[in-house]
Amino acid sequence: MPTDPLEKFWNAVLSRQPQRIRSAVKPLDTAARHALAEHLQRMVSEEGWMPQQRDSAQAALDVLSDLDSSIEKPGA
Q1: Residue 54 exposed, middle or buried by CB count within 10 Å (0-12, 13-18, 19+)
Q2: In a 10 Å sphere around its CB, with 0-12 CB exposed, 13-18 middle and 19+ buried, how is residue 50 labelled?
Q3: 3 — phi, psi (to 5°)?
């Protein structure tokens, strides 16, 4: 089990487990979420990433999108 906080964060973000992803990204402020989304988008779209990494990044982007839409539209 990783003890480094950054490694724990990335393991959760790339876990493909929505609850783990939400728990990892929920504490981030808007700017940090935006930077994370940009990095994940590069993982999905740029060459050099393995298919499993792309799939994990897309799963994290999907969770981020759901979180952001619920923040933008309270009670929706």
Answers
A1: middle
A2: exposed
A3: -105, -20
Q: Which residue has tokens 């999905």?
A: 44
What pTM was estimated for this model as a whole?
Answer: 0.83
**What confidence tens digit (pLDDT) does each residue in 22-73 have?**
999 999 998 999 999 999 999 999 999 999 999 999 999 999 998 877 554 3
Which residue, among 39, 48, 45, has the nearest Cα to 10 in the 3D structure?
A: 39
Inter-axis angle of helices 18-25 and 5-13, nearest 10: 140
